[in-house]
């Protein structure tokens, strides 16, 4: 039996009286690509915030490879090999693209808070940075200030920073939101490549992407997972079809076609 | 793999670029520091230059917090002062030691003691202060500055009460053949440590911690998700800022041979903020320019007029309102325009701005001088070029109101056309 990369048990989160996450149980196996779908406001980002340490769970447990990480500081969780991206691009706007990625690389290369080394002389850091930039196709824009990048490239940079530290559990929050069709296709390619052999949890609205990419899917509605399973199982689930009325049910069928 | 290695070689700046951007400026600094004495400066000039060196290092250390770390401190003189007191006490220990460590410690290296003292103070005080950023950090720094300044007056055995602690720099071993007696010899001491301080703080910006400091300033949330604890980053930066402030305190200890509790107070803390901001906190060189200008103003203007603090205030307000990039921002804007070949366009606007500012400044100077003369001398009057400018004299008011209004009108029109161009 392969080990669970992530395991959520009875996870809840309330903001005051509002119960946003109401008892989530979910096991994600090492190496699995797991998609989380659900309507806006269902609590998908909140779930990511609980797993990555931004929020402290109200109750329940979050385990990373069997170790409890619920409520741990984000930087500690990150050092354990779990990295996440943000739904709204969260980059270092004043730095160049290369510096952004380099910041993501530094800690994992063992340079922590070093103040005795010239960053330009750290060869393996520069190489790793170039390798990441190459893999996400941003190498030609490496010396541009991040703030000047077009929107889609900023989203890509967001992913690049997330994978830079070499974490083996990657959480991506709507990485393709707001991208055109061709941009989405490129982003999906790049995500597939960059997360090869890693555990991927992805929140995604584009059903085509979800059904292509995911080994398993969980459907989150009002802070509860109403279905988990292989794409074809989830698609046929009547509860899911009920939750996805109108347009989005068509979306499910589009996924069928894809 | 070689493929990638090649690409990364293309990414990094070339050796020529590195030389031009990182080595050349320091060669230039060293040359400038070395040739200044050849012009045969007077004693006063040496005194002024020595204070400039101290303030350059102090202002740069402040900018490690404000410009590079995004931390607004109202109490940075605490570290300057504590480093300085450590150095003065060490100076006394050197003077009275017969043998042992202090007997062999040259005065020339007192800034190292200041550095250690400042670092220690930063490590102790930074622990609680750096738990929070933003406004709480600023408020805590203010509270601590008050606290230490008050303690400075209370603990006479350490801080010497109001008279302070004095020392004698002409003791102990000489190094580099410097007796450190005359100010012209102190100059070499100051020049050496100014260079060390500037180079050290520049090198810091190139370390992983220095880069993370900028990342934490811009986006502390994201820093947490790439493995860094922003509190820890701020704390370490704070210690270094305290250490370099202490270094400048050690320079000051040798230069003045006295430290009083006033050095810990809010006044120098405010002044260093002004130096950094007026010079331009977004540029490494900004605080250097600010320190040079303000030291010069402080020494020259305060001979001319007692109102120099009023002028300083005016300058600060103008920078905040019209040139938030500070002196360095204006300077780099100029060289950028030069490079882009758009100098003609830009110069036209700047000439307008210069005329507008000069007019407004002229009126403000008259107002300030008339007011200061009147408030000082029980009705004394300001009499430039044989004019008799009293409060009752209509000419006074014409000379104040007309240029100020004209200047502001010009500046506003220029600001409007600039917006128009952008829109
Ligand atoms: N920090 C917070 N404080 C209060 N309410 C929050 C907070 N974060 C999220 N919420 C609420 O939780 C709900 C789920 O939000 P979110 O997780 O962003 O949804 P999703 O990502 O699925 O669209 C929303 O109603 C949102 O208003
Ligand atoms: Mg969301």
Helices, strands, pairings?
The complex is a heterodimer of chains A (258) and B (423).
Chain A: E1 4-15, E2 18-29, E3 33-37, H1 44-52, E4 59-64, E5 67-68, H2 74-79, E6 82-84, H3 97-106, H4 123-135, H5 151-164, E7 169-173, H6 181-194, E8 199-203, H7 207-213, E9 216-221, E10 224-229, H8 231-236, H9 238-243, H10 247-257
Parallel strand pairs in A: 3-8, 3-9, 6-7, 7-8
Antiparallel strand pairs in A: 1-2, 1-4, 4-5, 9-10
Helix pairs in contact in A: 3-4, 3-5, 5-6, 7-10
Chain B: H1 2-11, H2 15-35, H3 43-69, H4 77-96, H5 101-104, H6 110-129, H7 134-154, H8 156-159, E1 165-166, H9 183-205, H10 208-218, H11 220-224, H12 230-256, E2 258-259, H13 266-279, H14 286-304, H15 308-322, H16 326-340, H17 343-376, H18 394-422
Helix pairs in contact in B: 3-9, 3-12, 3-13, 3-14, 4-6, 4-12, 6-12, 9-12, 10-12, 13-14, 14-16, 17-18
The complex binds adenosine-5'-diphosphate and magnesium ion (MG).
Residues 15, 20, 38, 40-46 of chain A line the site of adenosine-5'-diphosphate (ADP).
